[in-house]
User: What shape does this take?
Amino acid sequence: MMNQEDQASRPPAQPVPAHSVQPFLQVVGVHKRFTGVHALRGVSLSFERGQIYHLLGENGCGKSTLIKIISGAQPPDEGQLVIEGVAHARLSALEALAAGIETVYQDLSLLPNMSVAENVALTAELATHEGRLARTFDRRVLAATAARALEAVGLPGNAEFQATLIEQLPLATRQLVAIARAIASEAKFVIMDEPTTSLTQKEVDNLIAVLANLRAQGVTVLFVSHKLDECYAIGGEVIVLRDGQKMAQGPIAQFTKAQISELMTGRHLSNERYRESAHAQDVVLDVRGFTRAGQFSDVSFKLHGGEILGVTGLLDSGRNELARALAGVAPAQAGEVLLDGKPIALRTPSDAKRHRIGYVPEDRLNEGLFLDKPIRDNVITAMISSLRDRFGQIDRVRAQALAEQTVKDLQIATPGVDKPVQSLSGGNQQRVLIGRWLAIDPRVLILHGPTVGVDVGSKDIIYRIMQRLSQRGIGIILISDDLPELLQNCDRILMMKKGRVAAEYRADQLGEADLYHALLSEAA
Amino acid sequence: MNSRIQPRMNSSIDSSNDASNDSSSRQTMTTPNVVEVAPSVEPQGLRMRLARNPEWFTVALIVVTCLIVGAINPRFFQFATLFDLLHSATTMSLFALGTLVVLASGGIDVSFTAIAALTMYGITKAVFAWWPDAPFALILVTGALGGVLLGVVNGLLVHRLKAPSLIVTIGTQYLYRGLLLTFIGTTFFMNIPHSMDHFGRIPLFFYHTADGLRAVLPASVLALVATALVTWWLLNRTMMGRGVYAMGGSLAIAERLGYNLRAIHLFVFGYTGMLAGIAGILHVSNNRLANPFDLVGSELDVIAAVILGGARITGGTGTVAGTLLGVVLVTLIKSVLILVGVPSTWQKVIIGAFILLAGTLFALQRKR
Assistant: This one.
């Protein structure tokens, strides 16, 4: 605490003599493990005052874990955080706030039922009084703090706006309110997790100005974004994480985009294509003008039998929503679907099942599997009605045979089909889910992120299964943000942006870097 | 690639420096070059205002009910009716203000009636047996402390088990009531301690009606006023109160922002317990009767009143004024229907209809 006050009394914008320069925050040898995943493997970083850092890396590289550890949301397993020379083995959320570390999470962490002023200024009030709740607060001070912070991000500081509830504000304004909260708390270190995803260009420009401001006041900013163009526009240092390890750190101007992409993905070695020459078959699925308000609009494409069609895009591109619409989970509101040339309705998941369209969801634990039920029961759920004998009972012998066949076909590693699905590894669980749809002899199979959270060996097996299925004439739609996966397995790749199909590529004529640039480029 | 990007980066930094040099003299240091972004708040239409202040809907229902009842029976419009209303609303108001705090925090409590029953009966019986002349203030404080104790048990369980408060308080409701009936007693007694009896008879104000009856406003109404003021102050003027709403807005976010959820849980359930304990004692002195089978079973009436007062069952909202209006509405329906000759069984039908009406209205607003 004493040390902190020393720092505060020093004018932050002044250049400090070299001998007394001490990084604001050092992350020293931090490890973090979750069940089965080593998310951070000895990451060491150093953050100077008044600098902007861009934290880059693919999904699952450990970015979010690192943010959570710095902001005190999770403790590290090993290593420590050194804040202004004071080492901490772990931080609580309140300690991090008191030390001046503010996080603007992707979800913004605003309380929807409370006013703008309270969201902006109460956190600071709480942190300066060490979280004590048994006290009153001065509403005039609160309003003054809020007004100052709101004006600093270009929002009105008047009483009417301060009294507005967060739930009445559009998303972009909420974003600025969240940043205003960091300013109100006199943050010395602001973490912003993908702050520009919901902003228009004008709002992004405004945000960049806000960042320059913070920087001029000696505030350190850790900026997480997928949009490389913005990172270059903001300037500062870049930190690249891959598989829980720091790959590089340095001024962003010294790296080309291609270099950064390569550092982030780093998979230039394993570019072997699983996909072999596709033999053209008739169109099996013809989607025309598919639209669901606010999620995707006018999406049209054709899928041939035996073809693997990749669909990718950023999180807000509508790819996930498209997958769910095709599966009838959250149906499209306009457009039509033709299966083998005949129009079909996909209003519910059972519609999709009836037309033999299988859907393997991204979140297999919550949307797909009955974890505590045997493999056999999980495999037969989609075709259970055809297993009924004339008394309406399930034919156990056939069910058993079918499940055993699936286990063999899909190389599921288990001592028996009566073992619960939760006893299997992620990759094997995924194969049970695919096996369920094979049991209905599908025309179309939609695989949504089939290798998320699956180890390398299992990935390989799933890819081979996918290729084998396409040879049987099944049309496969592979929805994924794993670019090498798309390039290795697909015939064509659709790139979605802002709910529309922005481009179509032939997978065998494309490099990973090209696809990565296409994914991140602004043009829609 | 690099060459294309470099100039852009430089220009952005240059422009920001220029701007800050220009404006630093006339603006504060914090706002050199930030353009004002129109906040684009939705205009406050009538529906929006109603969504923010749902208590106006409650007021409307009260006015409509009064007009209908008054048209049928003009004797409704006299102070005596108001006194009766306030008298019978006291216990329920204390319960409702406690329930408001729990609902605002995102929880729910159905054990407060059991807390009230246990404290009122236990304390009345104990006082009568050992110290029949105990002063009323002491009895009231004991009731409050007993309520806090039982409420804090709720709070600890909810916080520790991370269990839904509905489950926990259903459990403790049975537990507290079972303890009362098993170990303390099942017979009701009219011989309540003298000071309690006396307090129940103190008039705050009285007058003689046209038919020569004495209309009395009992002193216990003061407890209602005091509790309303204290609850309002706690919720709106203290950090704890803001913490209650923060937790009701989102448990996870409140924790991330550094709110001490344990303290808030203990406060919320402890405070509700305290109000329940006080309400129990006042109930005994008002009715001059301690009945162990009393009170439990009226939880839904109380929760209904708070919901009708505009608090959302999902937490994070609700006001003291709205809650009191909700209590007035429910009490009105319960007491005046007899005045106009409607069978009392219709009470539940009307309260239910009002709740559905209010629920539909609020739901439609949120959907928009």
